[in-house]
Design goal:
This protein is α/β, with parallel strands linked by helices. The chain has one domain: 3-Layer(aba) Sandwich (Rossmann fold). Helix content is 35%, strand content 17%. The protein is built from 8 helices and 10 strands. It has a 7-stranded parallel β-sheet, sandwiched between helices. A 3-stranded antiparallel β-sheet has the order 4-8-7. Helix 1 packs across helix 2. The chain is globular. It starts with a strand and ends with a strand. The structure holds 6-phosphogluconic acid (6PG). The site of 6-phosphogluconic acid has 14 residues, from loops. Keywords: Hydrolase. One of its GO terms (biological process) is carbohydrate metabolic process. Pathway: Carbohydrate degradation; pentose phosphate pathway; D-ribulose 5-phosphate from D-glucose 6-phosphate (oxidative stage): step 2/3. Belongs to the glucosamine/galactosamine-6-phosphate isomerase family. 6-phosphogluconolactonase subfamily.
């Protein structure tokens, strides 16, 4: 795990956008294509706005998600809407975006969520594996992607062989689809931007021990996938 301290959130967004742009350029240079998976939430917006302006062969980049809320794409909480609004603009509009579903079933019982997760996994299987980069976020409860502590579905999401599982967060809205932990750790590199003292405290706590009550700790304590932690 490498740490990249920044003085301000604006500096982090600018420096990390350039760093991600270089990584994607290297992937395109080496393999002809790049696959980037991104998180939702609020803090990625400045990063997305800096990243979309990076000089890159965006037509050779596929973008998808590390998780999705089970809401329609026109819902304000949709990660698909977030990426379309803030990242797939300007030069980055030439990228290929892979949403995790198009429509939702009328009911979202566990069986329906499992069907959605399996179908999303098949969509993601169309992208050349291993993906080049996944941008993670973290909540103040130590969740990352939609691997929420104590959530129904978490155990399956931590150990499933497939790329996508479902969870029902206890303290966050909407049923979710999430990349499984094995899928996240199968990417070539992970990026974790953390902004603000509250998240820094959770991060420091997660570095002390590996425990699924702080799912981000399972990412920080593994040794198979490089993790780049950006702090401001
Ligand atoms: O869909 C999501 O909500 C994200 O994937 C989630 O893991 C997010 O990264 C954290 O909840 C932090 O969210 P903020 O950036 O809003 O703090």
């Amino acid at each position: 795990m490498n740490q990249h301290p920044c003085n301000t959130p604006a500096e982090l967004a600018q420096r990390l956008a350039a760093w991600i742009g270089l990584r994607l350029h290297q992937a395109i240079d080496g393999r002809g294509h790049a696959v980037l998976a991104v998180s939702g939430g609020k803090s990625p917006v400045p990063l997305f706005e800096a990243l979309r302006a990076q000089p890159l062969e965006w037509s050779r980049v596929s973008i998808t998600l590390v998780d999705e809320r089970c809401v329609p794409h026109d819902h304000p909480d949709s990660n698909t809407a977030l990426v379309r609004t803030h990242l797939l603009q300007g030069p980055a509009s030439a990228a290929t975006f892979v949403p995790w579903f198009d429509e939702l079933p009328d009911t979202l019982d566990d069986a329906a969520l499992q069907t959605l997760a399996d179908a999303a996994g098949q969509r993601l299987a169309t992208q050349p594996w291993p993906w080049d980069l996944a941008i993670l976020g973290m909540g103040e409860d130590g969740h990352t992607a939609s691997l929420f502590p104590h959530a129904p579905g978490l155990t399956q999401a931590l150990h499933a062989s497939g790329p996508v599982a479902w969870t029902r967060p206890l303290n966050a809205p909407h049923a979710r689809l999430t990349m499984t932990l094995p899928a996240l750790l199968a990417t070539r590199e992970l990026v974790l931007p953390l902004i603000g003292p509250a998240k820094l405290r959770v991060y420091q706590q997660a570095r002390l021990s590996e425990d699924d009550t702080l799912p981000i700790s399972l990412v920080l304590h593994q040794h198979t996938t490089p993790v780049q932690v950006w702090l401001a």
